[in-house]
Amino acid sequence: MYVHIVEKKSDGIVVKGAKFHQSGAIAADWTIVMPGQGLREGNEDYAVAFAVPNSEEGLTYITQYNPMSVEREYTKDIYELGNPIYGQRETCIIVFDNVFIPWENVFMCGEVTYAGLAVTRFAKTHRMNCGGACKVGFADVIIGAATLAAEYQGTDRAPHIMTMITDMIRDSKQAHACAIAAAVKGFEEPPGSGVWMPDDLFGNVAKLTIAPGFWEIMSFAGDIGGGFITTMPSFEDLRNPATKGYLEKYLKVKVPAEKRMRITKVLQNWAAGLHGAGTWHGAGSVQAQMISLMRVADIDEKKKIAMEVAGIEEEE
Ligand SMILES: Cc1cc2nc3c(=O)[nH]c(=O)nc-3n(C[C@H](O)[C@H](O)[C@H](O)COP(=O)(O)OP(=O)(O)OC[C@H]3O[C@@H](n4cnc5c(N)ncnc54)[C@H](O)[C@@H]3O)c2cc1C
Question: How far does residue 312's CA lie from ligand 1's centre (Å)?
Fold first, then answer.
């Protein structure tokens, strides 16, 4: 199923296979394809990287479909959605059924030695951005919405609510700090190339920090918003003459029912939607970062320091 070369021609290559979870690909002009893992000798057909324009012959995009997709399809007014302006992250499976790629768009063709290096360089860049920047932006929305929900409900000065808000900020800013550190400690790789890559350790730690951190942020948002995040009626009920009066009366807090419902809908989108598992797996599931971390963390050096402190002599 991995994308691989099925034919080499004088003017290009023909590829076959599928790529999963391609964020935004359906709306992009071009897709850049590269191996998803290191490869060994014998896997030459899979050591392939190229650029392909959207809608090239032989490409099929099969989009994601989930309860959020259904909600968007059926809503009469997108302003009743939890993220009306930006929507959900749309991913798709791209199927390559004998797609021709001209040589000028082929970047790797059989060089198995470089597949792992290409993946590592891509991964640390993506983990820096995905873990320490993208999710930090998401967290800003969640923290803002949770704070507003608490203010509307009149719980914002309660010590446990304030603790949860500050913990959300800590979770988010720890990952943000790692992304900044990864960028600041970035270096030219390979030397002389003019290409600057992030620091391996901090790039990976950014993602490793936000993976559990984002679940924690969502759990606090769920706590602050209350069960209403999952049990809220629809805005249709707020318009329905049979229920409108009841909702206006019983959902009113320090603010009118509609305002409370709007901020709750935002919290529902983030804390009761697709973002937990999405954040966990995007840019590679956690085990992948752990493996990367153990490669670059220089444990031997740390063991040496501990032995020195403990007065243990190096064994012959
Ligand atoms: C919202 C979202 C957006 C994404 N966008 C993109 C994108 O734009 N482009 C792109 O290329 N990818 C994208 N991805 C893919 C992402 O990189 C993968 O989801 C991630 O690498 C995990 O792979 P997987 O989903 O196949 O899960 P799996 O690899 O199947 O992981 C599931 C579980 O199996 C374990 N596991 C996997 N392999 C092994 C093994 N060999 N031995 C033991 N345990 C194993 C994992 O540790 C994990 O616990 C996106 C993913 C998500 C969720």
Answer: 42
Q: Ligand 1, closest atom to CA 25?
A: 8
Q: What is the mean pLDDT of each run of 10 residues along the chain (316 residues)?
A: 97 98 95 95 97 97 95 91 90 98 98 95 92 94 98 97 98 97 96 95 94 96 97 96 98 97 96 91 89 91 95 82
Q: Which residues of 167-198 are buried (b: 16+ CB within 10 A; e: fewer)?
A: ebeebbbbbbbbbbbbbeebeeeeeeeeeebb
CA dist 24 and 141 (Å) reads: 21
User: Which ligand 1 atom minimizes the distance to the CA of 23?
Assistant: 8
DSSP state of 131: I
CA of 142 to the centre of ligand 1 (A): 25
Residues paired with 99 in a beta bridge: 15
pTM, whole model, 2 decimals?
0.92
Rounded to the nearest whole angstrom, what is the distance from the C-alpha of residue 292 to the centroid of ligand 1? 15
Where would I find the beta strands (DSSP E) of the chain?
4-8, 12-19, 30-33, 48-53, 59-63, 92-102, 106-109, 187-188, 196-197
CA of 126 to the centre of ligand 1 (A): 14
Kindly give, in sequence order, each residue whose CB lies less than 8 Å from that of residue 224, ignoring residues fewer than 6 positions away: 146, 149, 150, 155, 161, 164, 165, 267
91 CB under 6 A from ligand 1?
Answer: yes
- Residue reference for tokens 């994601």: 64
